[in-house]
């Protein structure tokens, strides 16, 4: 291991298309107020499904002005919109070859892939699908790397570009890939994006089949209840977020306004089950421990934990145990909240939306709450910042994620003034 | 880059395992064949590089229902690789082994079946395994679980360039101390009717019916690639880890580069030379020291032109042997870069450059390998490109155990 100071990045731009209104400011207003954007699904008739609740973005795909992008999948549109906002926010001037892009997405372009399949197969009745009315963009929907291409083209990026598809940790893992890409290629900027638009019949059906999503259809605004005793599954969401990562010394040289610093990101796998979690949370604890070690942070310097907090019975228990193991006594006093209570779980996008929320929390020195938290659970006994946000000194924080495949990730961020 | 490759698991229509695969590609035998997965008679495509005996694998039977064929390929390739490396993962410290596998299209056939079930029969007919079988991380996740690998695990997507990007991710994990052993590479299969229709819609596939002459990279009659399924998983280790267990590496990953092309309407040329330059620079290798280039060789005229011009720009015209055995077994998308890396390591070990089936006998910019060439080869460059504009390049060096 290197003994020099750890490779970090300055966060100089943030963009978001979250459930509710589009844009970083609307995202922050929703979170800071503790409002929820979970509603009955409106993008298709959810009547045949077990879970009919989702957190939808007020983003009109049909109104996208650029014709190329209008014909792309909704995930591509959300990604480009968030990336463009972050890029303008950062205001970097550089050459195309010195810009890299990392996109995280769990399910890619499934809305278009399913829509076109239904059309070409006569509603699933023909295995030998029609070729003739097939869109020339079908291949783009088959390969989610088309999202990376659309982001790269919209930003004019010609450096290294890739998509990371680690299921529900994708959005956090883009931070790890972005940090490595920034330093490994000595780039001026890496734009990391998380994007998923999974609110489609097949994705709703696949989570119905394993009862992972909330059936609380009668009270959609309060259906996502992380850490609450009465939680009954996650609420599917959609969205995209982007962060611009810059070499710290270059951001300093141009006197850029920093949201904070990305210190480290680590991932582990439980090698246990594709969807099941053991209660002890040991691999997530190990990811947190590794992120703290690489950040040269003690648990006592962590002033906030952004939880995965999906609202499934097993996740919230697993995660609580992991944080206790990794942070020791500090776990009892550190605030820990889940924004999935407000904007649902947008699979590969949510991790980046959470990092965007963390960047905004660092800037505003304000911790957003876990909405809908009302009834304590004896297995989830930490400070989950119930329903109301609070001003707080945040020097450093960690954001954690857990996903299908057994993947566990932790990312450490710090306030700009929090470290030398 | 400092990682050494100590095990290779390859599975393509050209063969399963190193011996069969090497025998086929070094003899320039074409293994493309008429599609047998479904009745293709109403479609304009006929050929693919299909795996034989897809079902006969070392995968536990309970996993068959839970996985797409693509995931079973990846698992099988990982078993072959670990066997070839003679590596006992149980002897590796708990978080020291990781995975970086590329996919370009996920579990296509599984997904097609479940979307059909949903729309033709209703939500209650969707498999409980759809959520874990179709998504792009399925193969990485199942590989982690099967081998009890608890370190850093990634699924990388960059269409045809992803297989090399996964090697770069693995190399980084080894270089920064995150892992001491990485399973890395890529594999793909998208040969269901919908998978093929999606691919065909790109306008980049060949519609030829003569399997011997369908995939003709750098040829004046090139009209697209023929898709295949399969890929390769490599065991990459830190030199210290390999040496501690007296493993004999095939060779080492010495340098990596990646870039993205400008949009087609741009007047700027492909950024592929940048990716190659980066890989050479990182490897501290001069262009004249490269003994062979494994080309992306899409057989799409525009792509071939850009690649030939890029190689000529870096190396000079016809200055280095260029080969693309993939025209014999198909374009494997994320499997392609991984298989080419495996083939390059074998070529250096055996002192034989495998040829490019259907390559033109003369090319103004490239010295194409039309017949197997013998010699001493110690440095290779592998190029992989992905639809949309992905360019990746890896420089390899031979291990000590090379012939000649």
From TrEMBL, chain A:
Tell me which CDD domains the record gives.
KAS_I_II
Single biological process term from Gene Ontology: fatty acid biosynthetic process
Q: What is its EC number?
A: 2.3.1.-, 2.3.1.235
> Which residue range or ranges hold the Ketosynthase family 3 (KS3) domain?
6-415
GO: which molecular function terms? 3-oxoacyl-[acyl-carrier-protein] synthase activity
The Gene Ontology CC terms held by the record are: cytosol
* Keywords from the UniProt entry: Acyltransferase, Transferase
- Indicate the family of this protein: Belongs to the thiolase-like superfamily. Beta-ketoacyl-ACP synthases family.
Write down what this protein is called.
Act minimal PKS ketosynthase (KS/KS alpha)
The top of its lineage is: Bacteria, Bacillati, Actinomycetota, Actinomycetes, Pseudonocardiales
UniProtKB/TrEMBL annotation, chain B:
> Record's Pfam families?
ketoacyl-synt, Ketoacyl-synt_C
Query: Ranges for the Ketosynthase family 3 (KS3) domain?
Result: 1-398
PROSITE patterns given for it? KS3_2
Work out whether the entry's keyword set contains Transferase. yes
Which InterPro entries does the entry link to?
Beta-ketoacyl_synthase (IPR000794), Ketoacyl_synth_C (IPR014031), Ketoacyl_synth_N (IPR014030), PKS_Beta-ketoAc_synthase_dom (IPR020841), Thiolase-like (IPR016039)
SMART domains in alphabetical order? PKS_KS
A biological process (GO) annotation for this entry? fatty acid biosynthetic process
Enzyme class, broadest EC rank: transferase
Give the Gene Ontology MF terms in alphabetical order. Answer: 3-oxoacyl-[acyl-carrier-protein] synthase activity
Enumerate the residue ranges of region (Disordered): 253-272
What EC number(s) is this enzyme filed under?
2.3.1.-
- Keyword line: Acyltransferase, Transferase
Query: What PANTHER family does UniProt report for this protein, alphabetically?
Result: POLYKETIDE BETA-KETOACYL SYNTHASE 2-RELATED (PTHR11712:SF322), POLYKETIDE SYNTHASE-RELATED (PTHR11712)
UniProt lists the family membership as follows:
Belongs to the thiolase-like superfamily. Beta-ketoacyl-ACP synthases family.
Under which name does UniProt file this protein? Act minimal PKS chain-length factor (CLF/KS beta)
* Organism expressing this protein natively: Prauserella isguenensis
